[in-house]
Design goal:
The radius of gyration is 19 Å and the shape is globular. By secondary structure, it is mainly α. The two termini are 27 Å apart.
């Protein structure tokens, strides 16, 4: 049966990747911490979405909706929070539960607090990762946790391609990966290294998850295709500089964080309809 909401595909695939990592890759991840991180993301989303919904509906309708009506409006937004939580579970690691919970709290809160014209400035999961990396010394992203097996690369590309086809943002991933891979191969050729060196790096599971599921978040990237192409190119160039100039293993995440505010200017320059997960009805819950 075909699912109508692209978020359902994302939840299924990201959840499957998490199970795959735990079972097939033997990740040493505390399952209780995973459950608590997901719960923190969902509860934060529920509380802030409820507050936002009530604040929007009262001036529009002259009354507060009933509890049941409000809950029915807010609940669909939990899908986005679950996607954010799964992204953090897949990518962020720490020996302290408090750091993971802080990342989840800040990630979800950013959707409501850091907005311009009703649109997110930062990708929530990316901001949570950057907050954990930048504010603490006990968090990291493990680029080698997936390995580089061909079947894993094919799995990521197949699942990511299906989701991107649903949301229509494949151009962002394609441009980012093409520019970053081109620069990496050029550097590799200049140094006289074998192409396997770059192929090994480009087949990293963490890089593919970033390329297919994080950089393509339709609620935090430029609305117009021209803007997305320029934006993805800028992120790829900055990633290359941070990766090979400063030897920063988390380069893609820092590049996305630094380039995220460019979306504001690009949306003003190229006007295009804003993406919504479902047909828009008031109020719009982040």
């Amino acid at each position: 049966m075909e699912l109508r909401d692209a978020r359902d595909y994302q939840i299924f695939f990201l959840g499957s990747f998490l199970i795959l990592g735990l079972v097939a890759r033997d990740w040493t991840v505390n399952l209780a911490w995973v459950a608590l991180l997901l719960a923190a993301c969902l509860l934060t989303q529920l509380a802030l979405a409820w507050q936002s919904h009530q604040a929007q509906m009262e001036p529009q309708l002259g009354r507060l909706q009933s509890w049941a009506e409000s809950l029915a409006t807010v609940l669909p937004s939990l899908k986005s929070a679950l996607i954010t939580g799964l992204g953090l579970c897949l990518l962020l690691r720490s020996n302290q539960l408090s750091i993971l919970l802080l990342a989840g709290l800040l990630a979800i809160a950013s959707k409501f607090l850091l907005r311009v014209n009703g649109k997110h400035i930062f990708n929530p999961a990316n901001l949570g990762i950057i907050a954990a990396l930048g504010l603490t010394g006990s968090a990291w992203v493990s680029p080698g946790q997936w390995g580089t097996a061909f079947w894993l690369v094919a799995l990521f590309l197949g699942c990511g391609g299906l989701v991107l086809g649903k949301v229509g943002r494949w151009d962002t991933s394609a441009v980012f990966f093409a520019v970053y891979a081109g620069l990496s191969f050029g550097r590799n050729l200049w140094l006289g290294w074998a192409p396997e060196v770059v192929l090994h790096h480009l087949s990293s599971g963490s890089l593919l998850v970033f390329t297919l599921f994080m950089i393509t978040d339709p609620r935090s990237i430029p609305n117009a295709r021209s803007g997305r192409i320029l934006w993805a190119t800028a992120i790829a160039i900055l990633t290359f500089i941070l990766q090979y100039g400063f030897y920063l293993p988390t380069a893609p995440f820092w590049a996305l964080f630094c380039c995220a505010p460019l979306t504001i200017a690009l949306d003003r320059h190229w006007l295009a309809p804003r993406f919504t997960w479902q047909p828009r009805t008031l109020p719009l819950i982040p």
